[in-house]
Design goal:
- The protein is α/β, with parallel strands linked by helices and 250 residues long.
- It has a single domain, classed as Alpha-Beta Barrel (TIM Barrel), CATH 3.20.20.
- 43% of the residues lie in helices and 16% in strands.
- The protein has an eight-stranded parallel barrel, surrounded by five helices.
- It is globular, with a radius of gyration of 17 Å.
- The chain binds phosphoenolpyruvate (PEP).
- Phosphoenolpyruvate is lined by residues 10, 168, 173-174, 212-215, 233-237.
Length: 250
């Protein structure tokens, strides 16, 4: 069974408001023919509001790149799920490897964020993935399995249906080195198997699992041909209209 593909652009810390508006304008006008795909963009916080407005009337959904688990309060520098919803977000990326590497994110805080997003009504895109050393020492599944299990700890079946998972081997992010379709399929199939154990086969078969790591228009097809790959989380190639549309229209 193939699930509805979901292609998400993670803009990271790129794009001023004017650039962000120009990018979505280009995406909107070039989207014809991509009706079978869910398209998501995740701009940095300062442009969420204006990008949300620019997206109105289009099928492109808005995502935050992170959120805090509290609803409001004295948490300088953080944003809440309610704030993301307020500016029009439908999704939020959680546990991206750059958050884990540079900002102390761990499985427990990922889990808190996932719960906060779900209870507020945002659909989480939960990222998992091993670093190069872990792959080289044969520990890929130990790491990815743990991140998946702990990230989803205590999430009910009903809520699990709203999750999107993103397998992003850290060694393939921003490096130009894509994991091979076979390497990706192997991990995706294991993640789906684990979801089946944690929930049930129906939830496992319905769950969308994206691949992320140097996805480009010229390698997306081979990845999407894999039975357990349901979309891509795209960094660098999502910053240009042509390359992101090339991926969306794989
Ligand atoms: C990412 O940051 O999620 C990512 C996959 O980046 P890139 O496509 O640039 O490797």
């Amino acid at each position: 069974m193939k699930r509805r593909p979901i292609m998400a652009g993670n803009w990271k810390m790129n794009m001023l408001v004017s650039e962000a508006e120009a990018l979505v304008k280009g995406l909107k006008s070039g989207l014809d023919g991509a009706e079978e795909v869910d398209v998501v963009v995740a701009p940095p916080f300062p442009s969420l509001y204006s990008v949300g407005k620019a997206l109105s009337g289009s099928s492109i959904a808005l995502a935050g790149q992170n959120l805090h688990w509290e609803v409001s309060g004295a948490y300088t520098g953080e944003v809440s799920a309610t704030m993301l919803l307020d500016v029009g977000c439908k999704y939020v990326i959680i546990g991206h490897s750059e958050r884990r590497q540079f900002f102390g994110e761990n499985d427990e805080t990922v889990n808190r964020r996932v719960k906060a997003a779900l209870s507020a009504g945002l659909d989480p895109i939960v990222c998992v993935g091993e670093v190069l050393e872990e792959r080289k020492s044969g520990r890929t599944w130990e790491v990815v399995g743990r991140q998946t299990r702990e990230g989803l700890e205590g999430i009910s079946k009903g809520d699990a249906e709203r999750l999107v998972l993103a397998y992003e081997p850290v060694w393939a992010i921003g490096t130009g080195e894509t994991a091979t379709p076979e390497q990706v399929q192997e991990v995706h199939a294991k993640i789906r198997g684990l979801i089946g154990e944690l929930y049930d086969e129906g939830i496992a078969q319905g769950m969308r699992i994206q691949y992320g790591g140097s996805v480009k228009p010229d390698n997306v097809r081979g990845l999407m041909d894999q039975p357990d790959v349901d979309g891509a989380l795209v960094g660098g190639a999502s910053l240009k209209v042509e390359s992101f549309l090339g991926i969306v229209k794989f």
